[in-house]
Each structure stands twice: as C-alpha cells, then as structure tokens.
Amino acid sequence: MRKNLLFDLDGTLTDPQVGIIRCIQHALAKDARPVPAHEALLWCIGPPLNESFARLCPDLDHEGVWRLIGYYRERFATVGLFENRVFPDIPALLARLAKDHSLYVATSKPQVYARQIMDHYDLSQYFRVVYGSELDYSRADKGELINYILKRESIAPGEALIVGDRLHDVRGAKIAGILSVGVTWGYGSRTELEGAGADFVVDSVGELGRLLLGGKA
Length: 217
Fold this sequence. Notes:
alpha/beta, Rossmann fold, DNA polymerase, domain 1, 2 domains, 6-stranded parallel sheet, about 15% strand
C-alpha cells in the first residue's frame, strides 16, 4: 500500500469549470478575439493555461500568449479563483486518508492560486504540502512536478501514487515511475485515462476510497 498520495486539484478535488472558462472567455474578449461557447472550452480544464491559449490562438507568439494569460489572471485572481466547488464526499475521504497517509497536492495550476483555493474550501488541513507551478509555468509539466515533489519530500517512486482526472496526470506518473489512479468524475473520460495507461480507473469517490483504504494500490 502506497503511503504517499498525490492529488491533482482541478477536476479531482474541486470542479473549477465556471471560473476557468469565464476567465478564458474574458481574456479572449479583451483581446478582441472570437469567444467560444462554454461547452467548447471544457477541454481547457486540466492542461497548463499557456498550452490552452496556444492551442486556442495558434497565430499568437510567446508574447501574445502571455498577454492573454495576463488578461485571464486579472479576473481569476479576484473572482474566478472562487467560482469553484468541492466534489461531494471528497472532504470525508481526505479526512480518512490523512489518518495514516501523507497527502500532497500536485497541480499544474500556479501554487499561489492553488493554496488560496485549498484554504478557502478548508481542504489544506488534510495535506502536508500544496505543490503547484510557478507563475511563469515552470513545473507545470506533471512529470517534472511529480519528480520535484518526490525529491523535496524524499519519497521513493515505489512509495507514491497520483490521483487525477486527465491524461497529463497519468503521463506524469509514468515519467516519474509512480502508480496512477484515474478518476472519471472530472474532465477526462475512462477512454482517455485508460488510453494513457492509468494503473487504475475509478468512477466514484467511494470506489477511490475502497481502492486506497483497502490497500489495493
């Protein structure tokens, strides 16, 4: 049984859909660009924001992408940050896991925002450390981030796993040599997670609890 559990944030612990998409729409509108409908932007939840803007606006150079990120953060830092919700049953599961596991957040979201979200929703109490990227998106790559956490916390790969909802979490786990558990209540499908090579895929918080608390992972 792995005692060190890494959790993705967006789409795994909380549902940030409203805040992220409204802030992307705000940035595109401020840059006088076409604004896709809400549903057409759901794929943006999970990947690093700079990658999403580069895909949305392939004509932009590096400077242009960062201009949009600046517009996004204008709204996100004050409003979008809290247009969010904790998935049902997550706090209860975290409370049980924290009794005999070491929990860490591993998110591509900038750490400064991730910590505010975790504090706001009273989730920080269950975690030893909340890890994220820097504002310049260094460590936004999940493989790089996981390796950074393992090194900082002196954790052997065989003693850890990550729980996440997107292929980025699974691929990052493979790079770092740890197990991955994909969850389907977020923004990645079972097909996406299994296709990326997730070691386990679960469809509910209850199923995740049975897997982690039952010593099967």
